[in-house]
Amino acid sequence: MKKAYLFPGQGAQFVTMGKDLYDNSLTSKALFEQANDILGFRITDLMFAGTDDDLKQTKVTQPAIFLHSTILAAALGEDFKPNMVAGHSLGEFSALVAAKAMSFEDGLKLVSARALAMQKACEQNPSTMAAIIGLDDEIIEKVCREIEDEVVVCANYNCPGQLVISGSMKGIEIACQKLKEAGAKRALPLKVGGAFHSPLMESARVSLAAAIEATHFAQPICPVYQNFTAKPVTDPQEIKSNLVNQLTSPVLWTQISQNMVADGADIFIEVGPGNVLQGLVKKVKADGEFLSASI
Q1: What are the start and end residues of each CATH 3.40.366.10 domain in the chain?
Q2: Fewer CB atoms inside 10 A, N or C side of the chain?
């Protein structure tokens, strides 16, 4: 029986996330307070008693989800015994810290830098994303390639029949119409700040690359299935390179799910807010065992 631990990305946040950890574990409380000091503001106030709008700010959302996931993984102690780990977009940073490829402090600093760089890129290039439901990946890829003079790319391969596209406002509008005509059951514009995992994040990629290169990475305690290649990685330098490329490349979650299953994963444990990733993996392995981590 092989265990795969899954770490969620942006969109999984909710008010009160992490409060039980803070209230019931002195070790967890100390990590949250350390995070407040590193970030320079009390993110715990926003996580535990803020508003939905507070948590939707990219500079808050990404560190908040990272904190909930990594502190929960730490609280599991000896019960945290992964054969493999993976995280969706932002969640890859949580997975790397949980697998001891980098320290909690370094991970938080990188996530904060990533959030601010992505926010800046969004402000420079007004853009968006849309979820496409019920259409083969190949058809979506073809429609995106055929749209001229606008940026439109496949951004999140979530599971068979669910793919998110990313690009300019006009490009996404055109793509949604064409994809509906091509037979998509739904083409839903998402309420996001910009075109994540697209070429429009290039300025953020350049900004983050220097920070990642300056950060110490160690060999993780188990393979990390990274978004950029969907393959298991343990080499620190390769992990760094994939992490940089992740910002402007698609999240290959469908392929990650397929590869983890092919490598023997049959127990999937989601660590952090929500249970979205369990639902996505179930589309690949319906007979797997699915759990949510808790203290």
Answers
A1: 2-123+199-292
A2: N
Any catalytic annotation for residue 198? no
Pairing of β 84-87 and β 224-225 = parallel
pTM above 0.90, yes or no: yes
Residue 152 structure tokens = 């439109």
Which part of the chain is CATH 3.30.70.250? Answer: 126-189
The one catalytic residue in 94, 197, 249, 257 is: 197
Buried b (16+ CB within 10 A) or exposed e, 178-210: bbeebebeebeebebbbbbbbebbebbbebbbe
Helix segments in 76-158, DSSP class H: 91-98, 104-124, 137-146
Query: What are the tens digits of pLDDT across the range 229-243?
Result: 999 999 999 999 999
Q: How is residue 194 written in tokens?
A: 């910009």
CATH number of 126-189: 3.30.70.250
Is 88 among the residues known to form the active site? no
Catalytic residue among 28, 89, 198, 257: 89
